[in-house]
Design a protein that fits this description.
homodimer, 4 strands, 24% strand, 4-stranded antiparallel sheet, 39% helix, 92 residues, alpha+beta
């Protein structure tokens, strides 16, 4: 069966077992990292999607799982796209 | 050579390669997780110690490395102890 995959925002990759979208964001400062995480938290509250997050002072790794172990779909890809925009604005 | 190790707050464990302190905190809600992370960020800004953090909606994994690859010392153990207090207050 051919599965049509949602288009993926720049910089994100698909990972398997379990299926997820992954991206590492790097920042010039801790303040930028915090600004990104705060905005990402607001996006999670709006969308109900809570990715796994790993971060330290100047980077954040974001892993967005598909719901119930399924392949990430339109909702997850939209979240990934918007997260990339939040990272860009946190740098600004 | 016998190395005297700082006493460690309850719930924390020492890991090796690289030497670090680790603890997983679990919370009943996303709001509690966020409250903990916000307080931990303030503690990082006060102390200048930035642990590695991994979190999702209802847990946070905290890894505190020793400075320059050394065994975590008094500053890191104090941070661990205060972090445990912040987790308890985030649950309150």
């Amino acid at each position: 069966m051919l599965v049509k995959e949602e288009p993926l925002a720049d910089g994100w990759e698909r990972v398997a077992r379990p299926p997820a979208l992954f991206r590492r964001f790097e920042f010039a400062s801790y303040e930028q990292t915090r600004a990104f995480l705060d905005r990402l938290a607001a996006l999670s509250e709006e969308t109900g999607l809570y990715p796994d997050l790993g971060f330290a002072a100047r980077h954040a790794n974001v892993t967005i799982y598909g719901q119930g172990g399924t392949t990430p779909g339109a909702a997850e890809c939209s979240f990934a796209d918007r997260a990339a925009g939040l990272a860009a604005s946190a740098e600004g």
